[in-house]
Amino acid sequence: MKNVKGVKILLVDDEPHITQFLELGLTNEGFEVAVANDGMSAVNLAIDFHPHIVVLDVMMPGMDGWEVCRLLKKNLNNVAIIMLTAKDEVDDRVKGLTIGADDYVVKPFSFEELLARIGARLRNQFPALFSEVSFGPFKIDDRRKEIIFFEQVLELSPTEYELLKYLVINHGIVLSKTTILDQVWGYDFGGEENIVEVYIRSLREKLNDKEHRLIRTLRGAGYRVDLP
């Protein structure tokens, strides 16, 4: 990632080998990193540190990640929380999103995946940090709510804009329909999953992606944007 100077990340996990590994990697990427090894320390540190991103483990002794997430969302004006968990249960994911978590990563995970998700959260929640972000042939200007594709401004509805932005920012990552609904429509969306297919079809038409080489369908898994 570029232009991360001044971006603050708080790591919260009771396993030192995980925090040490992540702290080293994120510091080398240019982030300002702080570490807490338990929930209460995390809450106290966050109030002074004012992180943009909190990478938060769910299963910790004492105050667990759910309670930390709830308190951070209550006490900080704007913070993105990425939950780390060894569980891959739908109920846990829904619980995290309900109390304010912004993303969910299942252990074990690669550093590259976490870095990509951190970048996605920054661009979604802190667009002022990035005036215009480029990904291959795409340029996303969140302040103007415009996406340029091969130097042409796409005519997009507000939902199409949010969906394409989410897909492009998370390029290379397989995104399920459920994940897309949570992030674009909101976890309390009461409609059908098929709405995602309708909007994907519309985006493909506007991108002239007739052969689905740009927005790929992975049967039974979801969608993935592959940048040329």
From TrEMBL:
Keywords associated with the record: DNA-binding, Phosphoprotein, Transcription, Transcription regulation, Two-component regulatory system
Keyword presence, DNA-binding: yes
One Gene Ontology term, aspect cellular component: cytosol
Record has Zinc as a keyword: no
Molecular function (Gene Ontology), one example: phosphorelay response regulator activity
DNA-binding region: 130-227
One Pfam family, short name: Trans_reg_C
Record domain OmpR/PhoB-type: where: 130-227
Residue intervals of the Response regulatory domain: 8-122
Positions carrying 4-aspartylphosphate: D57
GO biological process, one term: regulation of DNA-templated transcription
Protein name: Two-component system OmpR family response regulator
Organism encoding this protein: Fontibacillus solani
